[in-house]
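(Structure overview)
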Amino acid sequence: MKMNISDVRVRIVKSENSKLRASASITVDGCFVVHDIKVIEGEQGYFVAMPRRKTPDGQFIDIAHPLDTETRNELTEVVLKAYEEAKKAEPTE
């Protein structure tokens, strides 16, 4: 069964001191939403980080994440495309 990402919403983050570029929410199959997906600028370009929380012992664990590479690649592609479109739509200063 293939996942259908029916909506992507991106909020650009304007911070000079952070590698975080945006926060995104996706809707899956029109009935399930995942918030706080991050678009981060890394050394080799942008990548997508899934929502996570800090455990009492200081480790971070994903709250929601794809179970296979194909789904992760699809999610990454859709979120990064929406991020690029959001950047283009932003008013320039």
